[in-house]
Amino acid sequence: MTQSLSPTFCRRFGIAVLLVALADFFFYGQPAGITVLLFAILIAGAVVAVHPAALNSTRPWLKPAALLVALLPLAENVSPLSVAIAVVALVVFALSLSGRLRHGIARIAGQVALFLLAAPLRLIRDFFQWRRTVRRLGGRRIHLASIIVWVMPVTLGAVFLLLFGTANPVIEYWLSLIDLMKLLDLIQLARIVFWLFVLAGVWAFLRPCLPRLLRRPPRRLPPLAPPAAVAAPAATKSATTIEAVVFGKAAILRALIVFNALFALQTGLDAAYLWGGVALPDGLSYAAYAHRGAYPLIATALLAAGFVLAALRPGSETSSDPLIRRLVYAWVAQNIVLVISSILRLDLYIGVYALTYWRIAAFVWMGLVASGLVLIIARIALGKSNEWLLSANLATLSATLYACCFINFAAMIANFNVDHSLEMTGDGTPIDTEYLRSLGAAAMPALDRLYMHQFGNQTTCLADQMMIDDTIAEQKQWRAWSFRGWRLLQVLDKRGPLVLPPPTQPSQPSVPDR
Question: What is the residue-wise DSSP string for 459-496?
């Protein structure tokens, strides 16, 4: 690998420096928008440039098309989630073109994690490898020759440029625009740190290698010495006996019977109190009952899933027992009902205390837990491995996060809270306008509807108008453009002039778990 590094190091480093210059033009001191998508496409193009033979296949368009689909969330909106998806997609794309990508979602996820861990040090490691290679091939003479070879072209080029400037007024005007002091002012510590950060990140994609130690096969342990082999049977037999009693077939069978009974009790209580209309004990409201149980029940479902995976390991005695399998199916089904009950609990709580980011995240998390439980049943019924289960869950998680990139959660929260507020319906929770304003300009269309309902015209405070003006000015810069921002701009541009609202009573804030 060291010998192949030297001939291509300079070419790849030149591409990396060019990408750093483009990153400085796109991002430094500028708002992030469509430039993030453009830069990701440029990185993908650079990866193709350093691995041109990788696309010589029957379907050369397949990998770039898949990458473009993964980068689409950046066109919708630039957020930490869409950037994370783009980074993972670029890592997979680079590993695929370099021929290092393994098969299986779970293995690919492990490769992506190792790539991201090793990426910050990849440039430093390759630089020292290149230095050792240069010394081996010629040492300082090669370094000196590589510098001297540029002396004559640069010197004569500067002379010719000065002569052309004297002969051509246009070139003379261009040269007069060069302010060396202003160029020196651009060199700042923060900017240099930015360049180095981008250079290290870009270089990792141009040299998509995993840590060498992690690519080696596991080392086989030497056989045990004869004395240890003589003393082992007694200890092994004792440990096997304890494991057979505590985690054996009989113990698991009894545990499943007890767990099914407990979960049936919990499901029956939810059915009675939440859906059957049975009166709760004094001092306990339905909202408090719903909120108090939503998150612990999810933890219970996760613990149950871990127990099922441990109890029904592929090839174990318990996995082939028909009674245990039926009890596991019943218990996992009860866990799914439990997760659905948690979702309904949270829905009741939101009906009283409105919607927030954390409550949306809880909905998504509960849905993922429910799908994971369904996949556990599929794994047991189909006789699949735990690696298959992990890959299926990673695929579900990836699809969910990808879909979330196209949902404007800020607008969703604002619209829901306004539509179900006391001010709009005469029944419900008083609107927390301060929280809606904290969501940014995306909440302003919903607030405008609230003001229209209350006062008959669009009203807002001066701070809101300043926020809207800043959003409009930012979205009109090409670097900050996004499809979501463009849609919001069409709405904000149609707003009427600022009209201050009449004084009103301060609204009651929502509960703090945002």
Answer: ---HHHHHHHHHHHHHHTSGGG--HHHHHHHHHHTT--
